Amino acid sequence: MWEGVAVGRRSQLGSGWPRNTNMTLDQFWNIVEKAHRAADGDMDRKCELLHAELRQLPLDEVRSFHAHFHECEDRAYSWELWAAAYIIGGGCSDDAFSDFRSTLISMGRQTYERALADPQSLADMDYDAGTAQYEGYQYAPITVEKDLGGGRPFPRSRPHPVEPSGKPWDEDKVAELYPRLAEKYDYTG
Questions:
Q1: What are the sequence ranges of the domains in the chain?
Q2: Range in 41-45, 137-141, 158-162 the model is least confident about
Q3: Structural contact between residues 111 and 125, judged by C-beta atoms closer than 8 angstroms
Q4: What angle do CA 109, 11, 73 make, to 5 degrees?
Q5: In this predicted model, what pLDDT tens digit does every residue of 102-146 receive, in sequence order?
Q6: Each residue of 130-160: b (16+ CB within 10 Å) or e?
Q7: CB-based contact 89:130 (threshold 8 Å)
Q8: In the 8-state DSSP scheme, what is residue 123?
Q9: What does pTM read for this prediction?
């Protein structure tokens, strides 16, 4: 049995989007990391565990979790990380990059922060190219949010960035950016 992470209510929000006052970023990461450890590398299982944990929380805390999730997705929306995803996946569309960022978040705070600081650090870990662009983890918060909120989706607190941060790269030269990643994933461009 997987035990839940106690978050606890600290305030009641009125209608509208939370300002992350119910759940701290540390509490967000505790939930993510607990699901990651319990899933033992199985992304389908990780989604089930996250969904089950979020179902135990009040709606305002699920919204707060979702807001933290969006913030993490947006922080990871960089050309540098997209280049790493491109190499690992042998290509990476904008939808696949969204899946990649969600999968990266699902791996926990340490992996996430390390990859943001140095995308090539992904070469140092057992990062499965087959699940690197897993689609589904990002749907757990919205599914639970809609279930608890009577089917009503809640908007993001701010729009997704229009463009990734950082410097764009040329597809023909992306392997030059992260040669260790290119070698590990047999990417020749």
A1: 25-157+173-184
A2: 158-162
A3: yes
A4: 30
A5: 999 999 999 999 999 999 999 998 777 778 999 999 999 999 999
A6: ebbbbebbbebbebbbeebeeeeebeeeeee
A7: no
A8: G
A9: 0.86
